[in-house]
Amino acid sequence: MSKEAILYRMKTDQHICPYGLKSRDLLLRNGFNIDDKLLTTRQEIDAFKAEYDVATTPQTFINDERIGGYSELRRYFGKAPAEPQGASYTPVIAIFAMTWLMAVGLVLSHGFGFLWVSVIETFVALSMCVLAIQKLRDLNAFSMQFITYDLIAMRYVPYAYIYAFAEAFSGLGMLAGLAPWLVATPALLIGAVGAVSVIKAVYIDRRELKCACVGGNSQVPLGFVSLTENVMMVAMAVWMLLK
User: Fold this and answer.
1) What is the largest CA-CA distance in the chain?
2) Could you report the per-residue pLDDT of 222-235, keeping only the tens digit for each?
3) Residue 79 DSSP one-character state
4) Which residues contact 149 (CB under 8 A, 6 or more apart)?
5) How far is CA 227 from CA 52, 200, 202, 230, in A?
6) Of 26, 76, 190, 242, whose CB count within 10 A is highest?
7) 220 in Cβ contact with 142 (< 8 Å)
């Protein structure tokens, strides 16, 4: 027996609703034949919303029952929300997984085989660069989270901006092979202060905060991840100075 659905979605010259496309894809993947009704003008969109007393499109109807928008359609099919709810470590996992694979690829491309020391050095440098990019893409948002727990930034707000640029400089300097003292010094400073700040905020004061390590507005909990970032910088800085 065929399954039928009616989908009302917006498609104008200026805008194609992404949730409408996602709703259509979800229905197709669940074996539905779709009566795809396009709302192509503002007048059609407003008239549809008024007729069915809804605030948004798309809207899906199955067996003459209004299911709702994309989120409601996912619930109808027993699927989890498309967007993460609450704390999520996904951004950190993605960054560290990719920088590790990039480090392995770069080391292997030089034809020296898999050398642990070279891979780890490259991994740390790449991770610092990518984490710095996350902060630099929206410095204001980063600073808004960072100043709530960093011991220096709480007293001197511009340090939040210094931190992001210092991390970028150290990461790039490591990749470029600059003088160890020049590259390691800022990494050692920001890493040590950062580690102490996280330990105080999370493990002593027991505050529940979001980590600014992957940039502002993240849902990554402050704790192990941010501490790892800072300890990694300190360890790399010490290694460079000793080596």
Assistant:
1) 73
2) 777 788 888 999 99
3) P
4) 197, 198, 200, 201, 207, 209, 222
5) 51, 11, 10, 5
6) 190
7) no
Determine the Cα–Cα distance for residues 112 and 122; give it in Å rounded to an integer: 14
Residue with tokens 């400073």: 189
List CB contacts of 113: < 8 A, sequence separation 6 or more.
none
DSSP assignment string, 171-193: HHHHHHT--HHHHHHHHHHHHHH
The backbone torsions φ and ψ at residue 36, rounded to the nearest 5 degrees and listed phi first, read -85, 100
In angstroms, the CA 128 to CA 223 distance is 18
Rounded CA gap, 18 and 57, in Å?
10
For residues 81 and 187, give the distance between their C-alpha atoms in angstroms, rounded to a whole number.
Answer: 39
CA pair distance 13, 160, nearest whole angstrom: 43
Element (H, E) at 224: helix 224-242
* pLDDT tens readout for residues 183-209: 999 999 999 999 999 999 988 988 887
- pTM for the structure as a whole: 0.77
Average pLDDT across the chain, whole number: 89
Residues 168 and 163: their CA atoms lie apart, in Å, by 9
Q: What is the DSSP string of 89-148?
A: -HHHHHHHHHHHHHHHHHHHHTTS---HHHHHHHHHHHHHHHHHHHHHTTHHHHHHHHTT
SS3 content of the chain, % helix, strand, coil (to 5): 60, 10, 30
| DSSP 3-state of 227 | helix
